[in-house]
Write a structure and sequence with these properties.
389 residues, mainly beta, five-stranded antiparallel sheet, 32 strands, globular
Length: 389
């Protein structure tokens, strides 16, 4: 099995000086398609409380937003690119995360009244997501705070709500969906299409719900020629596909694309994967046009960046990432730029807390931000600015 690295919020680290973190070579380097954000540490704190910005033209870094709280993570930009939604843990003395908004100038604007309890969602902050209405006036996200108080503060019964909140006031307009309260387990992960047509409830068995027609679909759990299916938590950008990996006796046996209604759209079997050297793979990041997706995968302890083109049913081994000269291991998730060809990847060293943000350009050029020589976890959670075009 692949070695996985995790960074704990309470990690003890050394002092991070307030200097440029970039080790990118700017002479002759092609500009990036958009500015890039990633989280790093503030001063001598052990928490990711600073957002660094990589300038697309100069490739240099500078602080974009420094938070007085103890943990932040960028989530997604509004359609107009003037507001960034972030996940924020305001203090070690509280038991909740909050969804907040930061302006394009790097100023905290407001936080929403609905919150997410730390106990109920535990490590869910790592794959937490939000989406925006087309006009940018409303934000959709998951909360369990009201249910937490409705259960009189008990920590063994949890539910989750998908809510629509108004950006200008921070108040909740409506609850779009609510899970059942479950004892002793955190609530299932909820994912939804950008147009709020379909909702994925990642439970067992997994289901999708047509929110427009109020119809529930049971997703396939097993395919005779592939094995048991394990669904990734996100829809493709336009909402046409869900991705599921297939396993037999814990070994990867293929994967399938499934429609929101549960129909099998496309399959890849283990023979196809073995031909390109894949016996494990992570969940994909899609191009915005859904014509292809990228993913981390490999064989044994090797890791490569792969691209899969749907129409051609073809794999491309874009680049072998590990083992490499630096011996860094790439970590999911990867972040795809607006050009659908430039990727930001977090790398870590086994046995070390240090991480770097590596940017792979379409010309196979590496730009690197951070470094083990600074003796701290430098960068995580890369998020691209919207395209300026």
């Amino acid at each position: 099995m692949r070695v996985r690295l995790g960074l704990l919020l309470g990690l003890c680290v050394f002092f991070l000086p307030c200097i440029s973190l970039s080790r990118a070579q700017t002479d002759g380097s092609t500009p990036l398609p958009a500015d890039l954000l990633f989280t790093t540490l503030t001063g001598d704190t052990p928490f990711f409380t600073t957002l660094m910005r990589v300038d697309a033209q100069t490739l240099q870094t500078s602080p974009f937003y420094v938070d007085a709280g103890v943990y932040i993570r960028p989530l997604s930009w509004s359609p107009t690119g003037d507001l960034l939604a972030i996940l924020r843990l305001p203090s070690t003395d509280v038991d909740y995360f909050e969804v907040c908004l930061v302006t394009a100038e790097g100023v905290l604007k407001a936080c929403f009244e609905d919150k997410i309890t730390v106990h109920g969602f535990r490590e869910r902050g790592q794959n937490y997501t939000v989406t925006w209405s087309e006009d940018g006036r409303n934000l959709y996200f998951v909360t369990d705070y009201d249910l937490f108080h409705w259960n009189e503060g008990t920590s063994d019964e949890w539910g989750a709500c998908l809510v629509e909140a108004e950006v200008s006031t921070g108040q909740t307009w409506q609850t779009i969906y609510q899970t059942q309260v479950i004892a002793h387990y955190p609530p299932p992960i909820l994912s939804w299409t950008n147009d709020l047509h379909y909702l994925l409830v990642s439970q067992w068995p997994p289901i999708t719900i047509d929110l427009w027609e109020n119809v529930e679909f049971m997703l396939p759990q097993e395919l005779p020629d592939l094995g048991q299916l394990e669904f990734c938590d996100q829809f493709s950008p336009q909402g046409q596909y869900l991705t599921a990996r297939a396993y037999v006796n814990d070994e990867l046996a293929g994967w399938v694309l499934v429609s929101p209604g549960g129909q099998i759209v496309q399959t890849v079997n283990s023979e196809q994967l073995q031909q390109v050297g894949i016996d494990w793979m992570e969940c994909p990041v899609w191009q915005s046009d859904e014509a292809a997706f990228y993913f981390l995968g490999g064989k044994d302890k090797s890791t490569s960046l792969f691209k899969y083109v749907l129409a051609a049913n073809a794999f491309v081994n874009v680049k072998q990432l590990y083992p490499s000269d630096s011996q860094y291991i790439p970590l999911s998730p990867i972040s795809l730029a607006p050009d659908n060809a430039t990727l930001a990847i977090t790398f870590g060293i086994p046995g070390s807390s240090a991480t770097e943000i590596h940017v792979l350009t379409p010309d196979n050029e590496w730009l690197t931000y951070g470094g083990e020589e600074m003796s701290v976890p430098i960068g995580e959670n890369p998020v691209w600015f919207p395209s300026s075009e």
